[in-house]
Design brief:
mainly alpha; Serine Threonine Protein Phosphatase 5, Tetratricopeptide repeat; about 250 residues; Cytochrome c-type biogenesis protein ccmI; transmembrane; 2 domains; cytochrome c-type biogenesis
Length: about 250
Amino acid sequence: MLWIVIILFSLLCLLPCWITLYKAPTVTNAQQSALRVYQSQLKELKNYLEHGLILKTEYDQAQLEIQRRLLKSDPSSATTAPLQSVLSTSGFVAIALGLLCIPMAAMGLYIMNGVPALPAAPLAPRMAEQEEMNKKIVPYIEQLKAKLTTLSVMNPKRVEGYLLLGKIEASRGNLPAAVVAWKEALNQQYDPNLAAQIAELQTQIEGKVSTDSVNLFRKALEAAPQDAPWRALAEQRITQYEKTHP
């Protein structure tokens, strides 16, 4: 039943395409020939005017007459007889099959790369599972913290350890702890990208741009290259701070 609903909904989404294809204006061979003749006459008339063979008033009158004939030969005119459409039957069938292939291809990709038989997981069990994983990881976090306190400030592994600790805390949603860990790494080895990341994370936690965050942004901008991807965001945050702290 679900697949039938998906197919019907896909066809419904393509309904504007079907309507446009069905109601496409038909242009006949005779009309195309007439349009080409009138366009050729306009070009020839303009050429006569440029070479001084006719006067401007004569050019305007002749142009007006040709334009009148062009409008009269418009396919939408009520006097146009319904002749054979340029769009052949085979072309119409090809376009229709192409439109049908769109939902079929989408369903095929979903079946190949998705998991159609997997039911949707309710939110409550997923939250409980995440909480259980957070509890299991706490002892390892404490062990990592204890290990980092034993490392010398000059030890490069201390920076790597605090970067890892920050990533772990951020992945489990403990953003304040992630900021603390990353600041320890930043104090030992300055990195403008990390400084900007800390400043933005602090702004999200506090809901505003603090003095500490804006100082981090400014120092990061001075040390970062001109093509830093976060440069525009940092400048925007600094502008927000200056508006509230004139």
